[in-house]
Amino acid sequence: MSSQVTVPAVQAMKRAGRKIVGVVVWDYQMARIVDRAGVDIVSVGDTVGVNLWGQPNPFEVTMDQMIVVAQAVRRGVTRALVSCDFPFGPLQEGPASAVRAAIRLVKEAGVDMVKLDGAADHLDAVTAVDRAGIPVFAQFGITPQTALRYGLPYSANPGSGAQVPAEMTEALVEEAKRLEAAGAALLNFTNSGPVAGAAVAGAVSIPVVGGHGGGPWLDGRMRMATAAIGYAESALDDPPETYANVARISYDAITAYAEDVRAGQQIKGGLRA
Fold first, then answer.
1. Is the same domain home to 259 and 173?
2. pTM above 0.85, yes or no
3. CA atoms within 13 A on the CB side of 200
4. Read out DSSP for 95-131?
């Protein structure tokens, strides 16, 4: 299945000054919802391991697992551009391994683009995947798979308040330029901060999208759907600044359901898939 939103269309958004909307999703139903909401990029994140499966770090997710998750998301999206993360391993093992992994994600899951975490350290792999005809979404900055370089712990969101130091701006601009020259179609600059973020976005012709630490100085934003809607158990006790508190809504709904069952009342539900 191909998306109506294409890589060239997203690249043209930067030239037109239109902000790019990206959302990280791990399941079919959320994929359908965000696609109907009109986002531009649906990204299948390896953050699924920590955030959905309760794994302790982002390194345990396998390629086979990513393919299953990507298949579910792909089935839910008919319009947006679908990207999928490499798990830790295929990129680090070299260009041939990266190409094999990218081909699997395209053939078996039907994704439109692959996202490579730590791509600046593997420019030859970026070029190899691009030459195989598969668009590359290159991630750099403080990322889940490169957090240790900055003295941060393993996490799906290493240091949501930790931004790359401003004094690293020049080096990061050069990284971005090298990634573009290597064939990257888009850049995902994680925890950029305003100084480095604005400099990088202005230094390359391809779109620069940011997650945590990003802002209006970038060409667009990427956020986990669960983070945007407040879907985490921790939100029950410490409500975050989000667009909703789905954790509280879910808790209240399940509590009401349990009360109806225990009281012998008819229960609600039965939605179609």
1. no
2. yes
3. 38
4. HHHHHHHHHHHHHHH--SEEEEETGGG-HHHHHHHHH
Kindly give the parts of the chain with pLDDT less than 50. Answer: 1, 154, 156-160
List, for residues 124-173, the tens digit of each pLDDT value.
Answer: 999 999 999 999 999 998 766 565 665 555 454 444 455 666 777 898 89
pLDDT of residue 152: 55
Q: Is the dihedral of CA 152, 153, 154, 160 positive or negative?
A: negative
Q: Is 166 left (phi over 0), alpha (psi -120 to 50) or beta?
A: alpha
Note whether 111 and 208 are same-domain residues: yes
Per DSSP, the residues of 212-246 read TT--TTSSEEEEEHHHHHT-SGGGGTS--SSS--H
- Whether 2 is covered by a domain: the verdict is no
In order of 28, 55, 107, 130, 191, the CA distances from 113 in angstroms are 18, 25, 12, 10, 22
Cα–Cα separations (whole angstroms), residue 261 to 186, 194, 251, 252: 50, 52, 15, 14
Q: Copy the structure tokens of residue 6.
A: 């294409």
- Beta-carbon contacts of 1 under 8 Å, excluding residues fewer than 6 positions away, are 74, 78, 110
- Per-residue pLDDT, 1: 47
The CATH number of the domain holding residue 115 is 3.20.20.60
pLDDT of residue 147: 58
Question: Do residues 98 and 60 both lie within one domain?
Answer: yes
In a domain, residue 214? The reply is: yes
Average pLDDT value over all residues in the chain: 91
What residues contact residue 266 under an 8 Å CB cut-off, 6+ apart?
260
Domain that holds residue 59: 7-229
